Amino acid sequence: MSILRPFLSRIIHQGRLAVILPDGGREEYGVPAPAFPDVTIRFTSRRGMRRIILDPRIGAAEAYMDGEMELVEGDIMDLVTLIRSNTPWDRGARLHDKTWLGRRAEWVKTRIGSINRQRQSRANVKHHYDIGNDLYRLFLDEDMQYSCAYWSRSDMTLDEAQTAKKAHIAAKLALKPGQRILDIGCGWGGMAITLATLENVEVLGITLSEEQLALARQRAETAGVADRVKFELIDYRDLVAREAGKFDRIVSVGMFEHVGAANFETFFRAAANLMTADGVMLLHTIGRFGKPGATDAFTRKYIFPGGYIPALSETLAASEKSRLIAADVETLRLHYALTLREWYARTLAHEAEITRMMGVRFFRMWCFYLAGATSAFESGGMGNYQIQFARSRHALPLTRDYMGEAERDYVG
Question: How far is it, in rounded angstroms, from Cα 283 to Cα 264?
């Protein structure tokens, strides 16, 4: 009996997992079941097996990255999906809270890992976003939207779903000609350029990524909106002294996850101070369905150092301290899972280019990241929230009808 048997026999019940041991022995877990993949893995060393026992999440990732665990049948997406789908977050089982000690350990780990002082924020952004625009071009849509798309139809392409996402967000901003917009965490400029294309507004996009900044400026020139769309390398905390009260609207997509739990109140205070008295903000963020938790070790080490996925409760609690009114909250339950599967398929399609560019170990790490993220949104406790905040109760129409009307106009 291998050291993995007690661990895997508790987890795999539906779907079949075959394990080929370093000495050639074979073990099988679970039974074939509809919608559950059949997977076969081979361990090339007992060290790879021990890594998983000691720390299942990061141990499995590093064993795969280092070639100590190989996929014989299926791929890493199938393996992660098989494991996670056997214990879905919303399975309806009896709930058991963690002990006080376990909760305290998670709290400490998360807060220490996501303090994100300004110098550290720049380093964290550089770790993930300054690894080269060429990599992101290979698996993102044409507009390079590196966030959850909006799948209003099941037959949409990734580009169509990302276009729909931008229109969905723009409609919630209640844009009017002449407004000044701030895009916090502007990425490669797609959202800022889209807003200026949809309405006669001025947009300032800010980022901490030099790679993103250079491309965003170039794209604004190409789109012919550089006179109304500017980009700057600056921390949102530093912008307040210069631009307090000067923005009619704020949009932030996929950036709040990098703020860090210790800085939530700072973020919302800055946002409130940057807006006019009747300003509106649309925050699009990954979020936890349940209570606050902790960022897993793999993500902290390899993907988003300093990152933290917030629960809706702690997001709203932090915003309330800056007198921001949560005017509208939408939960996108499966949209990111659909998006991630598209990114994963495109990553696999460009294996040769990515391996040549970044190396085999990076390619395996990236695949594990996308597979793990997909399973978190399909079976785990992750979703996306779009939260509309207003500084004044009079800033928006009384009903939500204006959102649908504007969205239809924007989509065309």
Answer: 13
As separate numbers, helices (DSSP H) first and strands (DSSP E) second, the chain gives 18, 11
In 169-199, which positions are buried (b, 16+ CB within 10 angstroms) versus exposed (e)?
bbbbbbbeeebbbbbbbbbbbbbbbbbbbbb
**Single-letter code of the amino acid located at 370:** L
CB atoms within 10 A of CB 349: 12
Tokens representing 88 are: 């879905």
pLDDT in tens, 50-87: 999 998 889 999 999 999 999 999 999 999 999 999 99
Q: Is the dihedral of CA 148, 151, 333, 253 positive or negative?
A: positive
Q: What CA–CA distance (Å, rounded) separates 267 from 95? A: 33
| Structure tokens given for 118 | 């300004």
CB neighbour list of residue 124: distance below 8 Å, 6 or more residues apart: 116, 258, 304, 305, 306, 307
Reduced to 3 states (helix: H, G, I; strand: E, B; else coil), residue 309 is: coil
pTM of the model as a whole: 0.91
Contact 410, 170 (CB under 8 A): yes
